[in-house]
Amino acid sequence: MRKDELYLARWEAPGGGEVVAVPVLHGRVEFAGAVARAFRWVRPTAVAVELPPTLRAAVLRAVDRLPRVSVVTYETADGEAVYWLVEPADPFVEALRLGLEAELPLLFVDADIDQPPEHDEPFPDPYTVARIGHRAYVEACLRERAYPATQADLRRERAMAAGLAGAAGPGERVLFVCGLAHLERVGRMLPGPHAQPLARIRREGVRLFHLASASLPEVSSEIPFVQAVYEMRRAGPVAEPDLDGSTVRKRVGALEILTGRARWDEKKALDDAVAWAAARNGPPGAPLDRQRCLYHLVRLAGRHYRQETGEALEPWQVRTLFRYLRNWALLEGRLLPDLYQLVEGARSVADDNFAFAVLRLAGHMPWQAGADDLAAVELSAEELRMGSRRIRIRRRLGRTKRRVLKVPRRRKGEKHPGEWLDGFDPQAVCSYPPEDEVIEAFGRWLQQKAGRVLSEEAARSEPFRGSMLDGIDMRETLRHLPEGEIYVKEFRKVPGGVGSVVVIFDEDPGLERHPFTMTWLGEHQQESDMAFYATPPLDNVVGPGICRCEYGGFLLSYPPLRMADVWTDPDYAWTRTPAERLLAAGIDYSEDRFVVYCAPRPPRAFLKQYAGWLDRRIVYIPLGTLSPQRLKRLRVVHILWGKDKRDIAADYIW
Description:
The protein is of the alpha/beta class. The protein is built from 20 helices and 20 strands.
């Protein structure tokens, strides 16, 4: 941005000095960047901000502890709590920070009128500044509409004018950062006469807190990820980290279990993502591009989503997401989406796990977790009197009740590094019962579907002669339309029931992607025996002794407590792939005539002959005919190291 692209209002002060005003919008990163450039070009002798002097001590202490976000709070005479966030991307905070770094006098020229500040200003999207420039934006806002003042506004503006009048003596230049709506009236009041309006000169009970990191996504004026990128770029050129060395997926091996030392670091992965986005946002010193920042946010969240779930975010999903977000933002009079729209859009094009990955990264600021100098406080949008919308996110399988949240709560993490390694006991591996119920229900549904397929195969059609039988056969009726006959259909029951169920998601002939194999026996009569192959459990640890895997395929056999270890049984050594081994075992263990085989491709002819030798028949159901979303949920399995983990698993499973 060139110097002539900044809007700088230059006023002559009664004391003989000059006041240079920079109009801004509260809490917007584009205007924080404009303040930084104005500071370099104006070279002021003092900095004045639109804040009351009664908050000076608390605000300066908060500015001194940046980039950690702080909360300044006090109570009005009516007992109403007022909160003000001190954030890196706020233009007033940026002005104070630059003044402190340059050791300049700092002037708090607003009036404390004992009313909570209101900033519901009807301005165009601040991102416009990045496209047309600060000057063009401000001139358009001042030209197109007037900003009526309340009595409280006039009192504050008179106080600002009076404070500025005595601040700029001969040869002095004061940089004044003020709200755009106040700019013209303060300029008209500056020549005088001046009288300080009635306002508080001292306020008791002003307190300062550290904002808890869990509150960042809900109450920040800018998306925390965007603020973190701004903060990193503010410090100078950012070295681009190697993302191949960071992951949010938690992998452990035998050495980690024995030593209790973890080698994963989710925070480092999130920190690296922020640094990567900062390095890629543009050349050093250039204004931050919020649109590019949001693109990087989605791209990096998609990387984390793939690390955790194994599901890739496809290019068409990214295109659909940004087209959807653009249209939604335009409907609300903005150019770019807010955090609520980002999370909702992410869930719409993918699922709740991707929405969580977006929210987790969007709400991350590397410096915010933990603070020893101040007590931490959690805030909500209602307490800051911000507009809020609710997001309903489901991240757990088998939960019948879902809590409605404005921002979905974070997954439970480690209290200290290596805590989750304490929960591993290789002698007591078990499943998670709610997922067992989902799998068993799916197996029963496939059995019923196979029964319908067999019934349709055995159905016969005949002309209507007095009985509708099982209904009109539309296909045969249309085929014989010239004859004027109506055909009806009769479904015949096929002798024999449906037994074993085999579901194959990925054939994986060499077990390269799904090397973990296991055979489980049912724990009660309502549960089947199960054999499956899946991804390695220790590649994705999600809790103490709790691992997340993805099925490559599984076999369900009824009744339970009969199945030997399928994977070491020499009777199936002739099979070529894990899928064929499961199908051969399913045929062997089925007590009913029909065996369901649901897979991307039908079985080879030899397996059909093998089934015929045992008086069994394979019913093939193409995997592509089932719901992709349902299959995605079914592929996830959690393996627990010990039955005691079942009591706590709900806090970690997603």
